[in-house]
Amino acid sequence: MKRVLGLFALLFLSGSAMAFGRDEVLIAPTLEVQVLDRDLLAIDSESGGQRAQRLERGERVLYWRTAGRVGVVVTDRRVLAVATVSAAWQEARYRKDEAPPADVGIAGRVALALTRTRAIGFDGGSGNLIEAELGPREVVLDSTVGQDVVVVVTDRRALGLSAERGGFFEVRLRTGETIESLTALTDHATLQTSDRLLIFRADTAAWEERRRTIR
């Protein structure tokens, strides 16, 4: 019976690996976030340490998310993020009339929170929060989060964030160019438009372009 179960487990794992592919192997969770009274506690199994962040008087935790090596907490006053081996929690406070993000996209080493005026990304490689301003009347059309990459698409541009290199990196959309699909794997994301295929890679934090054949 044990041999049968062992064979079944081996086949299941092999099938899972084939289904996910090399780029789809998930990063094992190594960070846990706990809300303990007025403290946010990040428990790091990678370094074996803990990092605490004190909540302000009257501050309310709305929700929190963890995945892989990163954790994000959203309160009624700010977005807080932390990664394994990072020295401290990072924060982005809401501006006047800015509401908390409805949800946070999070994966192995990156996270994304969207507000009315900003894209707030978290780079778990450096442990920093990174912001990109949204222009007047600029509209977010779509976004995706892979284990090492984040992409935000607006009606004007695409913004890519990598866990390997700090910052948002943009490519402008052309007049009349429409979005057809957006996907993310472990270390790259692809954006297909009516004119071209755009690829954002985590290791270079650069956009590659392949023009579509005129039909």
Salient structural properties:
1 helix; 215 residues; disordered N terminus; mainly beta; 19 strands; 4-stranded antiparallel β-sheet
DSSP helix fraction: under 10%
- What strand line-up does the widest sheet have? 4-5-6-7
| Strand-pairing-aware structural class | mainly beta
How many distinct domains? 1
Q: In percent terms, what proportion of residues is strand?
A: over 45%
Task: Write the element-wise H/E pattern from the N-terminal end onward.
Answer: HEEEEEEEEEEEEEEEEEEE
Provide the gyration radius in Å: 19 Å
Please count the beta strands (DSSP E, at least 2 residues each). 19
Mean pLDDT: 88
**Large-scale geometry:** globular
Measured distance between first and last alpha carbons: 59 Å
Poorly predicted segments? 1-24
Biggest sheet overview? 4 strands, antiparallel
Number of distinct helices: 1
Explain what the structure shows.
This protein is mainly beta. The chain has one domain (27-211). Helices cover 9% and strands 50% of the residues. The protein is built from 1 helix and 19 strands. The protein has one helix at residues 2-20; strands spanning 31-36, 39-44, 50-54, 61-67, 70-75, 78-83, 90-93, 104-106, 110-114, 118-123, 128-133, 140-145, 149-154, 157-162, 168-172, 179-184, 188-193, 196-201, 206-211. Strands 4-5-6-7 form a 4-stranded antiparallel β-sheet, with no helix packed on it. The protein is globular and about 60 Å long. The termini are far apart.
